[in-house]
Design a protein that fits this description.
Elements (H helix, E strand, L loop, with lengths): L1 E4 L2 E4 L2 H8 L6 E4 L6 H9 L5 E5 L3 H10 L7 E4 L6 H7 L5 E7 L4 H6 L24 H7 L2 H12 L4 H11 L5 H12 L10 H12 L1 H15 E11 L2 H14 L20 E3 L9 H6 L7 E7 L6 H11 L11 H17 L1
Parallel strand pairs: 3-4, 3-6, 4-5, 6-7
Antiparallel strand pairs: 1-2, 7-9, 8-9
Helix pairs in contact: 7-8, 7-10, 8-9, 11-12
Length: 355
């Protein structure tokens, strides 16, 4: 997520991300939410010389914009137009693991918000779409115009934490078909009795619809689990969230993976066999500074959490990454290193199959 200022994309919490990921020369990094390419550019600059970055985004327009922005690093980047729910498959396909750092920035990009053509924002009257990738089958209009009142109300309550979900769902059913963001925002205002305070009454509904259309919560939980398995020893995972639902998923996963035992409290002796794979390095959430919020109001709800990969008693991950580190600075640094990559590939695939 970021803001367009004089045609320049400025990413959220940029310095904090670079510091938290401990970006180093020659490192290998994954940006799972490429967006406008701001974080990716900074990671490449700080990992030079020899750094590599795999950028992933479900939005083809983000890939196009980032390709232009990152053209000076074209020998060090690989950009993939896919959803991050396929993270592990993408990394295996391109032999890009283990890595030193993985970033998720879960906010909408400025490209999506300011362009306005796909209905992510009610600031622009546009078709009710909200698909990250136009190839997806279900749009926000499909959900709005085909869901039952009970299903729509439940969706708004679950993904938008909307306290007026019943009133909004009832009004939507009465007024449909609804085709544009402007229509929907006006109907929501009517349903809740007009606008109160600084936050527009349609905000939570639009959030809920976007989450449902793109299966964001399910995909996030899956992708985070995959990310842990792709980090080398000492590798960092950093996640920027913007609302309580996604932050809760991030928090719970980091807490779970930083404990040796995840048995229920009533179990006296551990039977789960779970071993910690992460160490939380942000005991306190990192928030944007007042100066950043003033420059980019969209950053005001951002929360950064991070963790570091640890090894089990066998030390298998440590040996794997020592092999990786010994290759940094090799003149063949690129998408090559075929012998080392094949060795690491076999090691990690065997670890994944046994976990």
């Amino acid at each position: 997520m970021g803001v367009l200022l004089k045609n320049t994309h400025i990413p959220v919490l940029l310095r904090e991300v670079i510091r938290t990921l401990a970006v180093q020369p020659g490192g290998r990094y994954i940006d799972c939410t490429l967006g406008g390419g701001g974080h990716a550019q900074a990671i490449l600059e700080h990992s030079s010389p020899g750094g590599q970055l795999l950028g992933i985004d479900a939005d083809p327009e983000a890939i196009e914009a980032s390709t232009e922005r990152l053209k000076l690093f074209k020998k060090s980047i690989l950009l993939v137009n896919e959803n991050f729910v396929n993270l592990r498959d993408i990394c295996i396909r391109y032999d890009f693991f283990p890595v030193h750092g993985i970033l998720f920035d879960l906010g909408l990009s400025s490209l999506q918000l300011d362009e306005g053509g796909r209905g992510f924002s009610f600031q622009h009257d546009a078709p009710l779409d909200m698909r990250f990738n136009p190839a997806q089958t279900t749009s926000a209009a499909d959900i709005i115009n085909t869901s039952s009142e009970a299903d729509l109300s439940g969706l708004l309550r679950k993904y938008g934490e909307e306290i007026h979900s019943r009133q909004i769902a009832r009004r939507v059913i009465q007024k449909r078909p609804i085709q544009t963001t402007g229509e929907l925002a006006h109907i929501i205002e009517q349903a809740v009795g007009g606008r109160r305070g600084k936050i527009h009454p349609a905000t939570r509904t639009f959030q809920a619809l976007r989450i449902a259309v793109n299966h964001e919560m399910q995909n996030l939980e899956s992708a985070l689990k995959q990310a842990v398995s792709l980090l080398g020893f000492g590798g960092r995972l950093a996640v920027i969230s913007y609302h309580s639902l996604e932050d809760r998923i991030v928090k719970h996963l980091l807490q779970r993976e930083s404990r040796d035992c995840i048995c229920p409290p009533e179990v006296i002796q551990c039977v789960c066999g779970h071993k910690a794979s992460l160490k939380i390095i942000t005991r306190k959430i990192i928030y944007p500074s007042l100066a950043e919020i003033e420059m980019n109001p969209r950053s005001r709800s951002a929360k950064l959490r991070a963790a570091e990969r640890v090894i089990d008693a066998s030390g298998r991950y440590e040996r794997t990454v020592e092999e990786l580190d010994s290759s940094i600075g090799d003149s063949n640094c690129g998408w090559g290193r075929p012998m080392m990559i094949e060795k690491l590939r076999k090691t990690f695939l065997s670890l994944q199959s046994s976990s």
